[in-house]
Sequence to fold (160 residues):
Amino acid sequence: MGEEINDNLINKGCETANTTGVEEIPETVEGGVKYYTLEDIRVHNVSSDTWLIIHEKVYDITSFLEEHPGGEEVLLEQAGADATESFEDVGHSTDAREMLEQYYIGELHMDDRQKEKKKEAHDTNSGESSTSWTTWLIPAVVATVVGIVYRYYILEHKSS
Fold:
C-alpha cells in the first residue's frame, strides 16, 4: 500500500530533473502546455540544471550549455530568470531561434506575465514622463527663436 502511493507520486511529478529537492508540479492547461511560476524557474540557475525564460516561454538549456558559441557563462548569468532582452540584444539568427524550440518545456505562468508587464510599463512610463515634455518644448523654443531672428532680419533689410 505504501509503495503504491510512492509510485503514484513519482509518476505524477515533474518530468524534468529537479536537483533542489523541492517537488514542482507545473500547472497544465488545454493543449498540454505546462505553466511555470517565476519561483519554479528561479531555482534552476546552476550548470547542472539551467532554465531560461525567453518571450514568456520556458526552456531547459542544461544540455546546451557546453555547445553555446558564446560560452556557458553568458547563459548561466541569465539562468533562472527572463533572458529575453539579452537574447534579442545579441541578435540571434533564425537558426538559433529554431534550435531553441528543442529545449522548450513550457510557458511562464499568466500571473507572472502580468507582473513582468506591469514592471516594464512602470519603467517605460517613468522614463517617458521626464522626456516627453522635452520632445515638444525644445522644438517650440527653436521655432520661436528662428521666428524672432527671421523677423529681425526682414525688418532690418526693409529699413535700409
